Amino acid sequence: MATTDVNVADATPKSRKLPPEVNIFFVLIGIALLFEVLGWVFQGQSFLGNFARLKIMILQVSVLGIISVGVTQIIITGGIDLSSGSLVAAVSMVSMSFAQTSEYGLDRVLYPAFVDLPVIIPIVVGLVVGACAGFINGWLIAYTKIPPFIATLGMMVSARGFAKWYTEGKPISFPTDSFARIGEGMNPVIIFIIVAIIFHIMMKYTRYGKFTYALGANETAARVSGINVERQKVKIYMIAGTLSALAAIVVCSRGQTAQPGMGLMYELDAIAMAVIGGTSLAGGRGSIIGTAIGMVILGVILSGFTFLRLDAYYQEMMKGAIIVGAVIIDTYRQKKKV
Question: What CA–CA distances, in Å, run from 298 to 60, 64, 133?
Fold first, then answer.
């Protein structure tokens, strides 16, 4: 009889923990409410009630959000990508050079033979450049066994140098109307949402996603189970490079200009979004939804600092502290599991 009671007790279902994304969402609400209170105390006005400010905030982080979707997949494998910001600069220069119009005179375009082209051409050219850079990253990491930090650091320096060499440091402007429309209005946000939905589905319901998580959880076990680890790594880095290229197209279209200095620190912001959103730097854990919430959290924090009129250098210091804090929390979680 006692045995039966023990078995019944053991069979009692344990209370389920909330998904990590829910906890992160609560953090977002708490931070937003904190800035709302600080707004009334120090500025005498509402932080959340100003929809124009919130719109600007979402537009500012949406381009970074596109990059962070690719960076999240890399971090889930236990890797890192430091090249995404420099790829934004390189791809922006190349795409804009194929998107120029002759309306303001041929003396103002880089390639007079390639003006007034259909919008699909600069888009495809830019995405191909990003995919090729991602392929190089992935191939070096997968087949030469170079640490991701070193491989993507080399690409970061090379891509930035390419962006400066391409026009000897000069900006490229005067895009066609069709190319400029890509970044108009809320289009960057719409593009981010589409990208996030696509890769959320891929990561959760397809073999690609399962293989990616398997690499981060235990690469040796993934290899033994029949996963082509090298091919999967190349795919992941190619996708990340392509998403960085997409972000570049959006940002240079929105500003209607491309400059070699574009994309500075974008890679760190994208990593911060992923880590704040619960993606573990140890690999094997993370989600696109979490990264999307992390993107909004970072946007709320930076917009809140601006709202409170804190100087930009304080914002940078706080951003660094937030990244370190998120990593410390992740490390603590890993130790608790062990």
Answer: 11, 10, 27
Q: With contact defined as beta carbons under 8 Å apart, do 270 and 86 qualify?
A: no
Query: How many C-beta neighbours within 10 Å does residue 137 have?
Result: 30
CA gap 136, 130 in Å, rounded: 10
Which residue in the block uniquely carries the two structure tokens 């690999």? Answer: 283
Percent of the chain residues topping a pLDDT of 70: 94
What's the Rg (C-alpha) of the chain?
A: 22
pLDDT at 1 over 50: no
Alpha-carbon gap, residue 84 to 273, rounded angstroms: 14
Residue 94 has pLDDT above 90, yes or no: yes
Residue 232, pLDDT score: 97
Q: What pLDDT, on the 0 to 100 scale, is given for residue 247?
A: 98
Half-sphere exposure of 37 (CA within 13 A, CB side): 5
Phi-psi region of 228 (alpha: psi -120 to 50; beta: other; left: phi over 0): beta
Angle between helices 84-97 and 51-76 (to 10 degrees): 110
pTM (2 d.p.): 0.92
Q: What DSSP state is assigned to residue 145?
A: -
